[in-house]
Write a structure and sequence with these properties.
By secondary structure, the chain is of the alpha+beta class. Helix content is 47%, strand content 18%. The protein is built from 14 helices and 10 strands. The strands form 2 sheets. A 5-stranded antiparallel sheet has the order 2-1-5-4-3.
C-alpha cells in the first residue's frame, strides 16, 4: 500500500485514533510501514486451524490471493511460526529456515507472483488462539537485523493496540451489534460471559444462527474449561478460549469461534503433500525432479541447469507430467497440486 507523506508520530496518532474503527488495521499498517521503511503491507488473521483471513490487502493480485487462500497458505512459514509459538514475535520470512524446502516453495510460489522481494512480520496475538500479523513488504532490497530489532521494539505497542481495538469493539457492541473486530467477519465469533450469556456476536455468527445450535451442555463445557473444541453438529466445529480477568463485558469469559468441519483439518507440510501428489499420478523419478522445481516457478532452462539436463529433456519431462495430470500450463499444474493438497486424497 502506497503511503501518503506523513511523520511517524502523525501515523501513530492516526492508529490510536482508529481504535474501534473500520480503518484500524490499515492505520496501524501504515504507521509500521513508515517506521520500518516498507513500500507496502498486508494484514492477515491466522487461526490455529483452517484458512487465514485477509484483513487488509492491496498487495496480492486476485490470482495470487486465490492461490494463497485456495491452499498455498498451508506452506506459509509465518502461519506455522505462530502455530508453534502462540506468542508475540517478529520474523523475517526468508530467515525462517527450519523447513527450507517449505520456505523456498512459499517464497517462489507466492512472492514471485506478487513481486515481493522480502517480508518482515509482527505477529500480535488477539485475546484468543488467533494472531493478527502485520506483514511489511519490500519490492526491492532485503530486511536487516537492525530492521528486525526495530520491529521487536514496536511489537509490544502493536500488541496493545490490537488488544485495545478488540476490547473496545466488544465493549461498545453487545450481543446484537456486529462491528468487525478482525476483518470481514467471515468466521462466526461470539463472546460468552461466565453465566453463559452471549454478550457479543458478529454478523457471521448471527447469520448462521450458531447460538440456536448450541446445547446447554456445550455452554457448560465452556464454563468448565479454559479452552477446548467440540463438534457442534455434522457441519460445525466450535473452538473456545478463556479471556482475561479484566476483559470488558466478560471477565473470565470465553471467545468462541465456529468453523466448517471441512476446513478444520490438520495441515500438512509441502514434502508430504508433494510425495502423495507424485505417487497418485505415478510420476517417474526424473519427472518428480522436474515437477518439484516447476512448482517453484522455475523455467525449463533454469530446471535444466539445476538438474544438469538439456532444456529439451526438461521440456519433454514437463510435457509428460502435464499429460498425466491432464493440464496444459504452469498455472493449471500449480492449481492441480493445490487441489491435491486441499482434498488430501490418499494415493
Amino acid at each position: 500500500m502506497t503511503l501518503p507523506p506523513a511523520t511517524e508520530e502523525a501515523l501513530l496518532a492516526k492508529a490510536v485514533a482508529a481504535i474501534g474503527q473500520p480503518n484500524f488495521y490499515e492505520a496501524v499498517g501504515q504507521w509500521l510501514a513508515q517506521r520500518i521503511k516498507s513500500q507496502q503491507f498486508i494484514v492477515v488473521r491466522y487461526p490455529l486451524q483452517g484458512a487465514p483471513e485477509m484483513i487488509v490487502n492491496s498487495v496480492l493480485p486476485k490470482d495470487v490471493l486465490d492461490l494463497y487462500l485456495g491452499g498455498a497458505y498451508r506452506f506459509d512459514p509465518l502461519m506455522r511460526l505462530w502455530r508453534e509459538r502462540q506468542a508475540p514475535c517478529c520474523a523475517i520470512v526468508k530467515e525462517l529456515s527450519t523447513d527450507p524446502e517449505t520456505v523456498e516453495y512459499y517464497l517462489e510460489a507466492i512472492f514471485r507472483r506478487a513481486i515481493i522481494r522480502d517480508e518482515l512480520a509482527l505477529l500480535a496475538p488477539a485475546p484468543a488462539p488467533v494472531c493478527v500479523a502485520f506483514c511489511l513488504e519490500r519490492r526491492s532490497g532485503e530486511y536487516t537485523k537492525d530492521d528486525l530489532a526495530a520491529a521487536e521494539k514496536l511489537l509490544p505497542v502493536v500488541s496493545e493496540l490490537v488488544r485495545q481495538h478488540i476490547e473496545f469493539c466488544i465493549l461498545r457492541s453487545g450481543p446484537s451489534a456486529v462491528p468487525s473486530i478482525f476483518g470481514d467477519c467471515r468466521m462466526p465469533l461470539a463472546v460468552i460471559d461466565r453465566t453463559g450469556r452471549t454478550v457479543h456476536a458478529n454478523e457471521a455468527w448471527l447469520g448462521q444462527d450458531i447460538s440456536r445450535l448450541m446445547p446447554d451442555t456445550f455452554v457448560a463445557d465452556i464454563l468448565g474449561m479454559s479452552e477446548g473444541q467440540r463438534m457442534l453438529d455434522r457441519d460445525w466445529r466450535l473452538d473456545w478460549h478463556g479471556l482475561a480477568d479484566d476483559f470488558p463485558l466478560a471477565p473470565r469469559g470465553s471467545l468462541v469461534m465456529a468453523q466448517k468441519a471441512s476446513t478444520a483439518e490438520t495441515d500438512e507440510g509441502y514434502a508430504a503433500a508433494f510425495d502423495r501428489f507424485s505417487k497418485r499420478h505415478a510420476l517417474t523419478r526424473r519427472e518428480i525432479d522436474v515437477a518439484r522445481l516447476a512448482l517453484l516457478g522455475l523455467s525449463s532452462e533454469q530446471i535444466a541447469r539445476r538438474l544438469d539436463l538439456t532444456p529439451g529433456s526438461v521440456r519433454n519431462h514437463r510435457s509428460n507430467v502435464y499429460s498425466k495430470l491432464d493440464v496444459t500450463s504452469e498455472r493449471e499444474f500449480f492449481r492441480a497440486f493445490l487441489a491435491e493438497v486441499m482434498t488430501r486424497t490418499s494415493a
